[in-house]
From TrEMBL:
Protein name (record): Large ribosomal subunit protein bL35
Alphabetized UniProt keyword annotations: Ribonucleoprotein, Ribosomal protein
Organism, scientific name: Hufsiella ginkgonis
Keyword Nucleus tagged: no
GO cellular component, one term: cytosolic large ribosomal subunit
Pfam families the UniProt entry points to: Ribosomal_L35p
Gene Ontology terms describing biological process: translation
SUPFAM superfamilies in the record: L35p-like
Amino acid sequence: MPKVKTNSSAKKRFKLTGTGKIKRNSAYMSHILTKMSTKRKRNLSHSSLISDADLGNVKRMLGIGK
């Protein structure tokens, strides 16, 4: 059986935590930040975990598990 290739875009966007969960960063933080309020930028700067609904798709893209 051939090796499952890792999706190149997924490996740049997601990180695996020590407990096996998958971490992601928020969108809308790359450019045109001058019109955004400081509070919104501060809240978007935090990372969060992948939801259970998307977990299977992301794991398949990263080549983790089944």
